Amino acid sequence: MLGHMMQQPLLISTLLIHAERHHGEREIVSRRVEGDIHRTTYKELASRSRRMAKALIKLGIQPGERVATLAWNTHRHMELYYAVSGFGAVLHTLNPRLHPDQVVYIADHAEDQVVFFDLTFLPIVQAVASRTKTVKHWVAMTDRAHMPAADQAAKVPGLLCFEELMAAQDDTFTWPQFDENSASSLCYTSGTTGNPKGVLYSHRSTLLHSLAAALPDALNCSERDVILPVVPMFHVNAWGLPYVGCLTGAKLVFPGPGLDGKNLYELFESEGVTVSAGVPTVWQGLLGYVEANKLKFSTMRRTIIGGSACPPAMIRAFAEQYDVQVLHAWGMTEMSPLGTVCTFKAAQVPLGQEERYAIMATQGRAVFGADMKIVSEDGKDLPWDGKTTGDLYVKGPWIISGYFKNEGGNPLKDGWFPTGDVAKISPDGFMTITDRSKDVIKSGGEWIGSIDLENIAMAHPAVAMAACIAARHPKWDERPLLVVVKKPGASVTRDELIAFYDGKIAKWWTPDDVVFVDAIPLGATGKMQKIKLREQFKDHVLPTA
Ligand code: ADP
């Protein structure tokens, strides 16, 4: 027997309709490429998204076709999130930090028809515009007054102006109804190995993910919050926050190109930001600035940190010096991205501070909709004892079933998606990522988790950044080599750092050697590129004791 309930497809446009009707006056504030601070509302967002949808239809874009962006977090990018997906086209967020050759590869692979870009990225557009195969229009996300001069514009065939497209349309438009399983947006994994692969989200997966992401034990967002997503809208839809904005009516603050400590801090304070989100490397810059200038956060209460492991020393610094709670989260592009978030269970609330810090350092527990398990190499379930490590598999309605255009074939194993991460799970369901399977260090047949080793080094006052990689060893095959960037003006020796591991970890896990570098290469999403380090240090000779 069927239930007698209304049939309403889970469409992204319904989020926008809700936001316009129920919190139309709530603000959306952006630091723009033009240099100003721009203020708008959800009502205006809805109106401009309808106008932009009409403009795209007028340009000949059909439902299902891909419309790309090369853009910072701003209100115009948000308008495209709703305009493009709203009428059934697919929003493809290109990562502007990629090499132009990769941008061409991805735009061709996605068959992008139109590319919207921020003026910052004009040089990339000029470098790729004559090379892409399918792009008919390049739209500069600005007004007529700020359009590139004629000699620059000449290098971009089919150049259009965002505000002119907008101005040519009125806002009378009804969002079409269609199957909630239709594709809504497309993100490519940053391709740390091989060519990037596309993850094609649906309206249904996006809506379910947004509902779960807003929950108190997930990102915990409400109308009363002021959210500043530092995580880019070109990286897994800024972890869903542009959708959570419309869903909850939280005020949104977009930092545009201003991602340095000073610009971020000023926005946090001037706009009363309560929640933020980003990768650990961004917070390092922010904390450095706040510390150097002896500042405090007057409104910020929570920050979601994920994308790579958040060093426990950072969790502690946020809590003890700034009264900001870190929500450690884990996910991936293939998971929309949310998998786990670390919040306490009732039984843990009364625990002592040190025990609480130990829990906060884990990646947390499963959000409903992202089930997980750990398995052995032969696919057998492993126990949740907080000790046994295995390959982490996930399953749920916002997890990929296959890559765009079936690249790489069927990725699933018995209906589960193998994440490529290695993890352990405690009896009460708290998951700790110990490594990526390709970064694991295999010493004498046993695994050593590089994240633990990095976290310890990061707790040393002289260390700004640390990566642990496998170095070749004649007897043990591989042994850990610690690569360290010192804090400016700080000094520490190899032997002091090695001694720093005493008593903190099993003796045989201690790195065999330490090398100091000026910088650790970061990838397009702000993560350490260990693959490059392994290449750089492939001939490193370890001391033999
Ligand atoms: P890419 O694989 O291109 O880096 P993602 O941005 O989707 O793409 O990265 C997902 C991966 O990032 C995860 O599989 C995991 O290895 C790592 N990751 C994400 N969050 C965390 C976290 N909190 N702790 C440790 N690793 C994390």
In short:
By secondary structure, the protein is α/β, with parallel strands linked by helices.
What does this entry look like structurally?
It is a single chain. This protein starts with 11 loop residues before the first helix and ends in a 9-residue tail after the last helix. It has 545 residues and is an alpha/beta fold. The chain contains 17 helices and 25 strands. A nine-stranded mixed beta sheet has the order 2-1-11-10-12-13-14-15-16, with helices on both faces. The longest helix has 17 residues, at 42-58. β24 (477-486), α16 (494-499) and β25 form a beta-alpha-beta unit. α1 (12-22) runs antiparallel to α2 (42-58) and α4 (100-110) packs across α5 (122-128). Bound molecules: adenosine-5'-diphosphate (ADP). Adenosine-5'-diphosphate is lined by residues 189-190, 192, 306-309, 328-330, 332-333, 337, 363, 419-421, 433, 436, 525, 527.
Write the SSE topology.
Elements: H1 12-22, E1 27-31, E2 37-41, H2 42-58, E3 66-70, H3 75-86, E4 90-93, H4 100-110, E5 112-117, H5 122-128, E6 137-140, H6 150-153, E7 159-161, H7 162-167, E8 183-188, E9 198-202, H8 203-213, E10 226-229, H9 236-239, H10 241-248, E11 251-254, H11 261-271, E12 275-278, H12 280-292, E13 302-305, H13 312-322, E14 325-331, E15 338-341, H14 353-360, E16 365-366, E17 371-375, E18 390-395, E19 417-425, E20 431-436, E21 441-443, E22 446-448, H15 450-458, E23 463-473, E24 477-486, H16 494-499, E25 513-516, H17 530-536
Parallel strand pairs: 1-11, 3-4, 3-5, 4-8, 5-6, 6-7, 10-11, 10-12, 12-13, 13-14, 24-25
Antiparallel strand pairs: 1-2, 8-9, 14-15, 15-16, 17-18, 18-19, 19-20, 21-22, 23-24
Helix pairs in contact: 1-2, 1-10, 2-3, 4-5, 8-10, 11-12
Bound molecules: adenosine-5'-diphosphate.
